[in-house]
Amino acid sequence: MSTSGFHLAMYNFGLHVASYDAPEVQGFVRREPVNFAAAEKAAGFVGRSGYVGEPGPGSWGVQVFPRFIMGSGHDSGPSSLSLWEDIESLSAFSYAGVHAEALKNARNWNTRNDWPPLVLWWIEAGRRPDWEQGARKLERLHDHGPGPLAFTFKHPYSMEGQPTQVDRARVKALVEANAPGQQDMLEQVRSMPV
Hints:
This protein is 36% helix and 13% strand. By secondary structure, it is α+β, with helices and mostly antiparallel strands. Strands 2-3-1-4 form a four-stranded antiparallel β-sheet.
């Protein structure tokens, strides 16, 4: 539980190069449950939304997508919605271990886009964001750039709404703390075809 009274919300959205069941994106499909399992074991993970009709946690509202999906030919896109204790915890998970392996291969599964791949914002501890809020925050980030209400790892804001810095030493320590719990999963994804 956050001692600050706030948690960091994260929403991401993209588009695959083909339909979800197409051979071109099966590397993503195979890795997705392993990534979710790695997140759940990561230091600072608070929770994540599931998807209606799929096993796992319940969905945080009706899943909607940002306006960027219009004209894409897709009716859905890879997206996730989660809560973390702070930006360092999310950074340690995102850019190391199992998730970093998926990011390394993402160009094989996802289109190049002109909108940000993710958005971050602070939310009162004990509250959950919903899918619509995530989609609107991503649109806001695209339209107005980073600010206190919608920001990125590269341009983070504090809970008080001020520009801040990610504590790189803490991220490194969290990466090291997460590594033993991810070792088996990391070996698993490394053996999967891309």
